[in-house]
Structure formats: C-alpha cells, structure tokens
Design goal:
The complex is a heterotrimer of chains A (497), B (490) and C (295). Chain B has helices at residues 4-24, 29-55, 79-106, 111-130, 134-152, 158-190, 205-208, 212-222, 234-237, 243-252, 254-270, 272-278, 281-300, 305-326, 329-360, 371-374, 376-390, 398-410, 414-431, 433-440, 458-485; strands at residues 61-68, 71-76. Chain B is mainly α. The longest helix of chain C is centred in the last third of the chain and has 31 residues, at 236-266. Classes of the chains: A mainly alpha (497), B mainly alpha (490), C mainly alpha (295). At the A-C interface, helix 6, helix 7 and helix 8 of A face helix 3, helix 5, helix 8, helix 12 and helix 13 of C.
Chain lengths: 497, 490, 295
C-alpha cells in the first residue's frame, strides 16, 4: 500500500483513532502528550496535502474504495486544503498551549476526557472540511459540535455558567444541524445524490421550489453554526465560559469551517445558474454581514469581560467574511478565504494572551488587564500586536484582509460598503484601544499576583503573533492560494472569472 | 560609495538598528546617546547622498518585497521626497542633540523607551519620504502614528492618557477610515498604486472626473497628520508630550509627513492638471484657507506657549495643502518650499520654548515678561524663528508665501492672496509679542538685583542656534532648492 | 378545490413531518425547563427522521434485502459472496438519482425504479435473455435520460462497469444501447409522441406531478410488475437516518448530561430560575469588580 495515496484520509483518521487511547490514558501528562503528538502528525499530513493539491490539482479519495458518487468521497481542492492547514495548524499550536492553561482551568480528573474530546472535535472539523459528501458533512459537523459542547461545559470549574452556555449552544447547534440535514434531505429527494460534485451537476439545470427550500434550510442551518448575525446568540456565552484554550481553538477554527461549508455549497453546489444565490447575496448575506459587523462591534465596545468582548468581535469579523462572499466575485471569495485564515491567526493569538492573563490573574475581566505592561510585558505585547492586527494596521494580517475586502468592494462598485467596512474597523480600534490603554498606561493593582507565565504558553502564543506579522508581509500562502482557490471555485460555479 | 538605491533602503533600516542598539545599551546612558547621535549622523549623510543623486536627475529606487499581488514595499526617491528626507534626517539629528540636553536637564524617566520610539519614528518618516507607492506610504504613515504614541503619552498620567487617546484616535480613525479606502479606490481605478510623474490617475480622466472631489477630500482629510481643520485636534492635544517630542511632531516628522503626503498625492497621484481640470481642489483650498485663518485666530488666544505654537503649526501647514490645491506650478512650489521653511522656523521656536521650560519651568506666555534679559540667546533665536514664520526677508519663510501668492494670482484667486496677507498679519500678532514682551516688558516680581544670565543646557542652546542659522541660509539657497524641485511642478 | 385536497391529502406524510417539526421547535422555544427543551429537540429531530424515511419509501417495495432468485444466482456465479453484497449496494445507490427525481410522490417512481433495476440485471443475464429484456431496458433508460440527462446515466453505467467487470461484452452492449437511447431521446424532447408507448407511461407521472391519480400509479405499477417481480425500497435514506438517529441519541445524551450537571451546580433546571441565580451571582461579582477597579 502506498502511503502517499492514503494521505488524504490521514487528517481524519489519525485524531479519530487516537482519541480513545487518549481517553483511557491516566490523567496527567500522558493524554496531553499523546494529543499533542497526534495534532502535529495531523498538521504534517495537512501540509503534505496542501503541497500535493497545489502541485497536482484536485485530489479525490474514495473512502474504503467505494467509487464516488456512491461511496463517500474525500475531495480536496485548494480551498479546503487551505482550511485544513489552518485547522490542523491551530490545533498543533493550541495543544502545547493547553497543558498549563488547562491545569488551572479544568478539573484535573477530566484531563484525559478533555484531550480526547478535543481530538474528536479536531476530527470533526477536519472531516467537515475534507469530505465531498453532503451527509458526511452533517455527521462530522455533529461530531465536532457534540465534543465542543462537552469542552465548553468543562469551563464549569471556573464558572458554572459554562454549563448553561454549553446547553444553549447545544440547543442552537442541534437546531442548526437539523435544519442543515433537512436541506440535505430536500436536495437528495430532488437529485438522488449526496456527492457534492454530483449534486452540482444535477442541480445546475433545475429550478424548482424543492431546491430553493433546500438552499434556504442549508443557509439557515449553517448560518446558525457560523454565528451569522441574528443567529449568533449562543456564541458569546460559549466563548466566554469555555476554557481559554478551547476558546482559542474554537474561535480560530469552528466558525471558519462553517464559513468554508457555506462557500462550498454556494459555489461548488449551487453555482451562479441558481437564481436564488444572487438574491441570497443581496438580501441576506450583505445586510446581515453589515449588521453583524456594526452591532456586534458596538456591543463589544461595552463589555466588561475581555473574553466576551473578543467573542462579540468574532461575530463582527464573521460579518466581514459574509460581506466578502456576498460580492460574488473572485476577489470577494478570496477576500473571505484570506480573512478566514487571517482572523484565525489573530483571534487565536488574542485568546491565548487572555489565557495567560487568566492563568496569572484568575479572571479575564477588564480590571485584571490594568497595568499589565508592567507585570506581564511579554503577554501584553502579544495582545497589542494581535490587537493591531484585528484593527487592520499595516504589516499585520489584518491589513491584508482589509485590503482584499476593500479591493473586492470597490471592484464591484460597492463603494458604500467599502466605507462601512472601514468604519466598523474603527470600532475595533475603539475596543482594542481601550484594553491597550489599560495595559500600557495604568498602574497594576497593588495586590496583583506575581509569578511567571510558563514557556509552554508563551511560545505558542508568540508563534501565532509571529504568524500575524509574517503573513502580513508575505501573502503567497494566504492570498496566493486563496485567489487560485477562489478562481477555481468561481469557474466551477459558472460565474464571471 | 554605496549606490543610492541601497542608501534609501539603509536610511529606513538604519534607525531600526539604532533602536536595537539603544535598547541594548539601556544601562549605559552615554553610550546609548552616542548610538542615537551616530545613527543621526549616518542617516543625514545617507539622506544627503540620496539628495545629491536625485539632484543629478536620477530616480534611484529599491524594492523590498511584494506583499500582495502587484503591491510592493518599494522606495523611490524623487525631488520632493529627497528634500523631505534631508529635512527630516537633519532636524532629527538636531532634535536628538536637543533631546539629550532636555531629557537630562529635566531628569526624565523612561529615556531608553523614549529614544527607541524616536528612532522607529524617524525610520517611518524616512519610509514616508521615499515611498514609491501609496501602499508603502500608508504602511509607514501608520508606523509613524504608532511609534509616536508612546512619546505623546510619555508622562503616563491622566492628561497624557487623554491626549494620547485623542492623538491615536484621530490619526488612526482618519487613516483607516478615509485614507485606506481612498487608496484602495485609487487602486481599483488605476490598477496600480505607484506614484507617477504627471499623476497616476491622469490617464483615467473619465473614470475619475465624477469622483475627483470626493477622492481628493478623502485624501486631504484621510491624511489626518496634515491637520486640516476639522481633523486637527490631535495636534494641540499632543502638546502634553515633552518638548522635544512636540518639536519632532511639528517640525521634523509627523505634521510634516502629513502635508508632505498630501502634496505628494496631489502631484503624483492626481497630477496638477487633473486637479485643475476637474476643479476638485477648490473646496479643499477654501477649507485650507479657513484653517489658516481660524487656527491663527485661536493661536492668539492661547496663553500656553506650546499650545500657541501648535495652532500656529495648524495654520502654517495648511499653506502646504493650500499650495497643492491651487494646482499651479507656483502653488506646488510654494507648498514644497513651505515644508522646508516651516520646518527650520518652527523647530527653532519649539526648541526655544523647551529651553525656557527646562531652564525656568515657564510655559505660559504671560510669564515671560523680562525673560529676554535672562536668556538673551534663546530669545534672539526665537525672534528670528518667528520672523521667518511670519515671512520677513531675508529669512527662509518669505519665499513660500511669495510663491503661493504668485500661484494664487496665476489662477485669479485674489481672495486667497487676501487670506495669505491676513494670515501674515495674524502671525505678527501672535508671534512677535512673545520675544517683545521678553525683552521690553518688566518682570512682575521686579527686584533690584541685576539679572543673571541663565541659559538652557549647552546642548539645547547649540541645537536651536543651528536651526536659526538654517532659517537664514534657506533664504539665500532658495534658488537652488527651487531648481532642485523644478521637476515636480511639470 | 378537490384537486387541492387530493393533492394535500396524498401527501399526509409531509404534513406529519411538518406538524412534528413545528411542535418540536415550539417546545424548544417556549419551554423554560431544560429537560422539556431536550424533549422538544428530540421531537424536532424525529420529524426529520420521518422525513428521510418517507422519501425512501415506495409503495409495494420491499426492504432492500436480496431475496435470492435468479438475480442472486447470477450474481453469485459472477462475483462470489462478499462482492455480491457490495454490488447490490451499488445498484441501490445508483438508482436513487432516478427514483427521487419526482419531487412529490415516491409512489410514482416505482415504474422508474423497476426499470432501473432492469438495467443491471440485463447486464448479468446471459446473452439469450438480453433479447427478451431489451425493450424494457431501453424504455427504462429513456425514462432516466429524460429526467436526468445523459451525464447521470453515464455515471451510473460507469459505476456499474467495474462491478460487472466480467461481463465485458454485455457491458459494451449496454453502452451501445445507451447511446442509441440518447440519440432517440434527442428528438423526443420536442415531440414525445414518436416513441414507444412504454416510454409514455414512464414519463407521464413524472411530468404531471400534481395531476396524478391512483389509477395512474397502478397503471405504472402494473407495467413494472410485468417486467420485474421484486421491488426494493431505496435503502440509502434508511442508512442515513440510522446515522442521524445515532447523532440524535448522542445529542440527547449530552443534553441530558448537561441538564444533570446544571442541576448539580444550580439546584434548578428552569431557565428563569437559572437566570435569576446568575443575576444574583453577577450582581455580587459585579459589585466586587467595581470596587477592585476603583482601587
């Protein structure tokens, strides 16, 4: 058996098979070490995949040798190779970080369960991304969601509200997933296939209400999962009360994967011949994206808990991605893909910085950030640099995202939207600036706990910060791949090149 | 001899190396300051090298790397930038000498941080000067904003926090909110963001015509550092900083970088002809005229010396914007020379103000009565600087006003000539009384004993003597400068 | 009006799905008790299970398990046991496309389904038998082409191909006839009357949609029975829904476990009580925080 041929299945299989072993490992260091190794192995597999895809084009892997469209197909093109790289890369960075952070934030007796659930969550997210089968997406989506509910609930050691947050997330997430599965059912009933490529083939010249309804169900279902503006209410609580490492991982990956799913359905399945798509762009994605950008940013401005503030900011950032999509052009889609990638980097770094603060100060409330530049300078600067990235200051990834988005907006003549985009990043300036000022210019509280932040947390955090700067300077990986991926998606969707 | 392209790259990179050295020499103040000064000297030599090469007609460039497809981090020296580079590098050196005297005389804390931020800021200013495209300009513009923020909030108290918040808030809000979209818009229309002689947008006349006014306004206000009213409040608020910082903000880098950017955008992105043909400059021209008068009027009512000088800067630098918007070759020339003339003049004034504060802790105009006898050199320099700003020959500041009036006359804007005249009178009203009071008025607590001369530290004194001299020299060297700048007016 | 009622009543299964779905959602939204919410969620999910089952159901069809007849023998000879099973699955899946093309009533598809089954069968039969089946086979292919376009058919054959590897000849034969079918089909798009009557039967229910009556269906069913003895229900929705049930059970389990933990932590499972408890905690904490910030 040639191993290289099996690479496409590895990202899903490795963490999935490892999870049970991690679960039965004795509590303490062992589960963490195993999980970290697994995460890195997955990451390496994903790097290979991206290389393969960018060299030889789309890879189709028939799971269990059942030929598609009957068997489940893993279909990897540039778009999902990029997302795979992102998800596994974030896992590879977050796992080392999690060890110390989790020692203080979750019950030590749960540590093996924690890492097992974390790995399953990773499996699910990678599975959603890699698969080319609609129902399989649902299954993996639920695999990741179910483990996420458990992970969020583990924050209960610090704050019991994690439990209610997890419960609400469960209710909303399940409704979302069920909507999605109804949508898939309707499409299946109309076309008789579940393979995405095959679906696209059969939908392309059909126009009936079944497909319209299926589209709407899928949009709403995934909208719930990705916290599209009015359906975002589960997110702030879940992110706030989850253990910080989990938040860092989820903020960087979970909603991103959902955005990817929506891109996949819009462009690879429905395509531009589908009349509903244009309407969805103009009347759903654009207004909701803009509303999310503004309302969530404004809400973030008034939060007393920094974690919650960033959670709202995530909702706002998802607004950017939706707006990028709504342009329906190559530039728009590549802007969204670039932002998916870049936003993961900045939010990952920011939440990790919060993790360091929580470890030291015991809380992420705004008061514990006061005077942090004096007590925790390394963390402070990580927070500030990634915060600047969030605002969109040049030389950081945030600027690259914003540039792509603005360019896309001006390209389609949506000048007004372009100005709204920058206006909302000014609100980001407001809330990041508020924290930065606290950290830099205030005195630390007198009874501030002293101590050192462990290297195992600082290094992963700074890796992401460095990535924020590196990908702000060199966009061949993000921008280049995203543009090619977007062009491929667009030509497949029959849109203007 | 190194190539000019490399000199450009080095002049951006060198201060960063200097910054590193300053950081490493944290514990040895003397060595640390030596690092600053060495950097300053080398930087000045580099800037002059570039200036000389540009003077010979070459346009040296240096491409660092490509960031986004078609958008490069790239430098290219042209007359305007080369001139700004020399001014910034030269005045930074002077300012560094002065800061050493000031900071030591004042016993300031966090000096290492202070010099580090200074070094980064000058690096950014050089980047702005030599930027080959809007994209590079924007990057260094933002770096400049961020690196000066710790300088503005140096004291870290409530007042500094508020000042810093307004400073950063306005500058970032305008640059991200207005300038960035304007750049992207330009990029979307022209397919490039390079500075082109004759104007990047000129070949796209039809596409630009309907939006030229909006686009130009976006640039004029987006470059918040140009302090065009009503985006000027950051400037008076930044006065909470130590005086060397104020001098740096006003004369060396920040405001200068702002007006320089406006001028550069007007010349190389729009092109003089495009602005003239579309009439897009006219509203901005009137706003600039309004800023000139209004800021002068406000300056008259400021008792705080530094605040008075700050409003004077708002007023004086609107001349540059005005010159750019006149859209004639004389106007552009007036704007360009005003950058140089105002730099040396205002630098002198600020350093004098700082010297007074260091030596006698006086910061209000009303406290200065009789001080001229205590600090004669300082006030003579102040007087010369003030006269230069007012525009009295034989001082550098007289030429720009002449050019601007000639430019206004060219297009028949007599009202603008009126504005310039009124402004000169207002300058006299708010600047001249300061040295006059110092020399002639009797001190309030007039005591019998003879006044003892007590000047600021020698390093401060030497610094502003140099700039005072520069005011004079500039008057006589103007024809050379004009010849050097000639290409940009075509 | 009558038509409308018939239309509505014939689709009673969908009404059940919708009513269940809305009931479930309503419970989730309106009830404050966490356990009741889970119940509502379950109802909501169940409605989807029923929806999937209902699209897999065909009147007169049996469970998709081979009941061993000549079909089975034919397969057994060619492929041996293990592969034989896979083979079935392949066919079942391949047919789905056609079987559910009519968006409204699975009943009408039976003719279709049958016709499609004939296709792989024909592959497996001996050359002599092919002749007698040829007509049926061709018709079913026509039907399929009409609805799905040539692409799909190609795909179906491509899949059938590797599985039936041994029957290279008959496969060629089949693809030849497919081409013939396509050619014949092209003019058909405009004047459908030219073709054999069997095709009309296959087509009628598919294109009329709402206007179908029971008689229509029976006619089709008879026609199909004439050609084929055994009809299988589409297995895929059942497989899918088994998976979905597993997911649903897991969700319920996690949800209930959370409810238990919440009760342990708060001593309540009513949402408004929880909010009140949180508010109390928040207020206390908030006061402490404000005091801390003031220092």
């Amino acid at each position: 058996m040639n191993l290289m041929e099996q690479v496409p299945v590895l990202p899903v299989v490795i963490p999935m098979l490892a999870a049970p072993f991690v679960m039965i490992a004795p509590n303490g260091r062992a589960p963490w070490a195993m999980a970290t190794v697994v995460a890195w192995a997955t990451f390496i597999a994903c790097i290979f995949l991206l290389q393969m895809v960018s060299q030889q084009g789309v890879i189709s892997y028939a799971l269990g040798d059942w030929a598609p469209p009957i068997g489940i197909e893993y279909r990897i093109d540039l778009a999902n190779a990029l997302v795979l790289l992102l998800v596994s890369g974030m896992a590879a960075v977050v796992f080392p970080f999690a060890y110390k952070s989790m020692q203080s934030e979750i019950d030590p007796k749960q540590s093996s369960f924690f890492y097992a659930a974390f790995l399953i969550c990773l499996t699910g997210l990678l599975g959603v991304t890699i698969t080319g089968d609609a129902f399989n997406i649902f299954v993996f989506l639920e695999i990741s969601s179910l483990s996420t509910y458990a992970l969020v609930a583990m924050g209960a050691r610090r704050d019991r509200r994690a439990l209610t947050a997890a419960f609400n997330y469960l209710v909303m997430g399940t409704i979302g997933a069920t909507f999605f599965v109804i949508g898939i059912g309707l499409l299946y009933q109309t076309t008789g296939t579940l393979n995405l490529a095959d679906l696209a083939d059969r939908i392309s010249d059909q126009d009936n209400r079944m497909i319209d309804a299926g589209f709407a169900f899928i949009l709403v279902g995934i909208g719930l999962k990705l916290a599209m503006f009015p359906m975002h209410l589960w997110l702030p609580n879940a992110y706030t009360y989850a253990p910080t490492a989990v938040t860092a991982f989820l903020a960087a990956t979970a909603t991103k994967v959902a955005v990817y799913v929506i891109i996949r359905f819009f462009y690879s399945v429905f395509g531009f011949n589908f009349e509903f798509l244009g309407a969805a762009f103009t009347w759903v994605l654009l207004p909701l994206g803009l509303a999310g950008m503004f309302i969530a940013s404004l809400v973030a401005l008034f939060q007393e808990d920094v974690k919650r503030m960033l959670a709202y900011s995530s909702v706002a950032q998802i607004g950017y991605m939706l707006v990028g999509l709504s342009f329906g052009t190559v530039e728009g889609v590549s802007a969204t893909l670039v932002h998916v990638f870049n936003h993961a980097l900045m939010k990952g770094a920011l939440f990790m910085a919060i993790g360091c603060v929580v470890l030291r100060m015991g809380s992420a409330s705004i008061a514990s950030f006061s005077g942090l530049a004096k007590t925790m300078p390394v963390t402070t600067w990580a927070f500030i640099i990634s915060g600047l990235s969030l605002i969109g200051v040049p030389l950081t990834v945030g600027f690259v995202s914003k540039w792509y988005l603005l360019e896309a907006a001006f390209d389609v003549g949506q000048v007004f939207v372009g100005f709204l985009i920058v206006a909302s990043s000014l609100i980001a300036l407001g809330y990041v600036g508020r924290i930065a000022e606290l950290m830099l210019l205030r005195e630390p509280p007198e009874n501030a706990p002293s101590g050192t932040t462990p290297w195992s947390m600082l290094i992963p955090m700074w890796v992401l910060v460095a990535a924020n700067v590196y990908f702000g300077l060199s966009t061949t990986l993000t921008g280049g791949v995203a543009e090619r991926a977007a062009a491929a998606l667009m030509s497949a969707a029959g849109g203007a090149p | 001899m190194i190539s000019a392209g490399l000199a450009i790259a080095l002049s951006v990179a060198l201060p960063l190396v200097g910054c590193l050295a300053i950081w490493l020499l944290d514990k040895h103040p003397n060595l640390r300051e030596a690092a600053t000064l060495t950097t300053g000297w080398v930087l000045l030599i580099l800037a002059i090298t570039v200036f000389a090469v540009v003077n010979s007609g070459a346009r040296p460039g240096y491409q660092v790397f490509e960031i986004i497809d078609g958008l490069t981090l790239e430098f290219r020296a042209e007359p305007l930038g080369a001139m700004f580079g020399v001014i910034a590098a030269g005045l930074w050196l002077v300012n560094s000498v002065y800061s050493i005297g000031y900071m030591r005389g004042h016993g300031e804390s966090h000096q290492t941080r202070f010099y580090m931020c200074f070094a980064i800021a000058i690096s950014a200013a050089m980047g702005v000067a030599y930027a080959a495209n809007l994209f590079t300009l924007f990057i260094f513009y933002e770096v400049l904003t961020l690196s000066t923020f710790p300088l503005v909030t140096h004291y870290g108290d409530e007042k500094a926090r508020n000042g810093g918040r307004i400073y950063l808030g306005i500058l970032m809000a305008t640059s991200i909110g207005l300038l960035l979209p304007a750049i992207v818009w330009t990029y979307a229309i022209a397919g490039s963001a390079d500075f082109v002689e004759g104007g990047l947008l000129a070949p796209h006349f039809l596409a630009v015509e309907p939006i030229a006014g909006i686009l130009l306004a976006l640039y004029a206000f987006g470059v918040g550092k140009a302090a065009l009213m009503p985006v000027h409040p950051w400037l008076p608020n930044a006065m909470v900083a130590p005086t060397p910082v104020s001098a740096f903000l006003h004369a060396v880098a920040v405001v200068k970088a702002g007006v320089f950017s406006v001028l550069k955008i007007a010349v190389y992105v729009f092109g003089v002809d495009l602005i003239a043909d579309t009439g897009a400059g006219e509203p901005i021209m009137w706003i600039a005229g309004g800023s000139i008068l209004l800021a002068s009027a406000i300056a008259m009512n400021q008792d705080n010396l530094k605040a008075r000088l700050a409003y004077s800067t708002v007023s004086q630098l609107s001349y540059v914007t005005l010159g750019a918007m006149l859209a004639t070759s004389m106007g552009v020339m007036g704007g360009a020379t005003q950058i140089a003339a105002h730099a040396v003049g205002k630098m002198t004034l600020f350093m004098c103000a700082g010297a007074i504060y260091v030596a006698h802790h006086k910061s209000l105009v009303s406290e200065l009565d009789g001080m001229g006898r205590v600090m004669p050199v300082t006030f003579v320099c102040f007087l010369i600087g003030a006269l230069s700003i007012i525009g009295l020959p034989p001082l550098g500041g007289s030429w720009p006003k002449f050019f601007l009036m000639a430019g206004a006359a060219d297009i028949g804007q007599l009202a603008i000539i009126g504005v310039l005249m009124v402004s000169s009178i207002l300058n006299i009203v708010y600047l001249l009384p300061i040295p006059l009071r110092a020399f002639y008025a009797k001190p309030k607590d007039a005591s019998a004993e003879p006044v003892k001369i007590s000047e600021a530290p020698a390093l401060c004194l030497g610094a502003f003597c140099v700039t005072t001299l520069a005011c004079l020299v500039l008057f006589f060297m103007m024809s050379d400068l004009v010849a050097f700048l000639e290409p940009i007016t075509k | 009006m009558d038509d409308f009622f018939t239309f509505a009543l014939e689709r009673y299964n969908y009404w059940i799905v919708i009513i269940l779905m809305m009931t479930g959602l309503y419970i989730v939204i309106s009830r404050g008790n966490l356990v009741k919410k889970i119940v509502g969620l379950n109802l909501f999910q169940t409605s989807v299970f029923i929806f999937y089952i209902t699209i897999g159901k065909m009147v007169g069809a049996t469970a998709p398990i081979y009941i061993g007849d000549e079909l089975y023998k034919a397969h057994g000879d060619d492929h041996g046991d293990g592969h034989g099973k896979g083979h079935d699955k392949d066919h079942g899946d391949a047919h789905n496309g056609a079987a559910y093309d009519d968006s409204h009533a699975s009943d009408h598809d039976s003719a279709h389904e049958e016709g499609l089954h004939a296709a792989p069968q024909a592959n497996d039969r001996e050359a002599n038998d092919l002749g007698s089946d040829a007509l049926d086979h061709g018709d079913s292919l026509h039907g399929k082409i009409d609805n799905l376009g040539a692409n799909d058919l190609k795909a179906a054959i491509a899949e059938a191909g590797p599985a039936d590897g041994a029957d290279a000849d008959s496969l060629h034969d089949l693809s030849d006839r497919v081409d013939a079918g396509k050619i014949a089909n092209d003019p058909l798009v405009k004047p459908p009357s030219e073709d054999a009557p069997a095709l009309d039967i296959a087509e009628a229910p598919l294109h009329e949609g709402a206007g179908n009556t029971l008689e229509d269906f029976q006619g089709v069913a008879d026609a199909s029975h004439g050609a084929m003895e055994i009809m299988y229900a589409n297995p895929l929705p059942h497989v899918l829904i088994l998976t979905a049930i597993v997911v649903g059970v897991a969700t319920t389990a996690v949800g209930l476990a959370l409810a238990v933990r919440i009760r342990e932590a708060y001593g309540a499972i009513e949402e408004d009580e929880l909010e009140a408890l949180d508010a109390v905690a928040e207020f206390g904490e908030g006061g402490a925080e404000a005091a801390g910030a003031a220092q």
